[in-house]
Amino acid sequence: MEQLMRDFFLFLSKNKTLTKLAKRYGLRFGASRFVAGETIEQAVEVIQQLNRKGLAVTIDYLGEFVDNEQEANEMANHSIEAIRAIGENKLNSQLSLKMTSMGLDISDELVMKNMRRILDEAKAHGVFVTIDMEDYSRCQKTIDIFKQLKKEYDNVGTVLQAYLYRTEKDIEDLNAYHPNLRLVKGAYKESQEVAFPDKKDVDENFKKIIKMHLLNGNYTAVATHDDEIIEYTKQLVKEYNIPNDQFEFQMLYGIRPERQEQLVREGYTMRVYVPYGTDWYGYFMRRLAERPANVAFVLKGIFKK
Ligand code: FDA
Predict the structure, then answer these.
(1) What's the ipTM?
(2) Residue nearest (by alpha carbon) to ligand 1 atom 51
(3) Which residue's CA is the closest to the ligand 1 atom numbered 12?
């Protein structure tokens, strides 16, 4: 049943008509629990509140699967606006973005042009930029773009997903670049040709790649809400004397906020991924797919009104 629901929401997450409708009608159905608002001003307020609690942030202007050049350029402009807001308001925040919002499905030239604009601005403001990882069909391209950009900029990192069979090898291959990587379980619907179908195997692979990347001496962001993985990381860094400034934990805005603050109190760097903007639909559907309790929360919200 859980798997069916997961598949259903992941299927809905790709629906273009619903994506357009959602943009037109604004944040609905409890999406504001996971999305900081539709404007940069609203996002800045949320980030200031999180920073006051000692939480670091990575801000994301929501958008994905863009299919025309003008929209891709506008998406890049929004990211630049977010970087300027970080600088002007002295926020403790990085930036995250998706390659399909920069024009990945249109042309490599367009993506590189937009990414260089963003990374130049980010460099000027001392802001680090993480390239999110999307579905498997875009994984190799995303890694290739990351490698090229990493040769030109030191303020860029990317994400690897524990559910993919290929990730262990990607960790090895990328080691030559000494990358700052965010490691996650993986949020898209993938076939068992390319991804572990069982959660148990994903979790084991997650632990394996965390260990590999940390022991390679690279900066590691462990992005999860899973206590077992968090405890595993804490034990690992203790055992190998890995300093607190070589890793951090990351969680999504609106998920386990008390646990986020607890990790800060324990002395760890805890970064919250704060999405904002009008294109909230696909992101929201993936959050619903992850956890049936999130669906119950949404249903309660709908029927209360
Ligand atoms: P999982 O969903 O398996 O949950 C494990 C356990 O965590 C649960 O059993 C429960 O104990 C606890 N838990 C989870 N949610 C809870 C809640 N609401 N309340 C209480 N307990 C809860 N994916 C991707 O493909 N590309 C990307 O670029 C990114 N980027 C990214 C950034 C950040 C900062 C995060 C945190 C995540 C991503 N992801 C991602 C998403 C990621 O791949 C994954 O889908 C989600 O993080 C959910 O997986 P978890 O590791 O949290 O474990």
Answers:
(1) 0.97
(2) 224
(3) 226
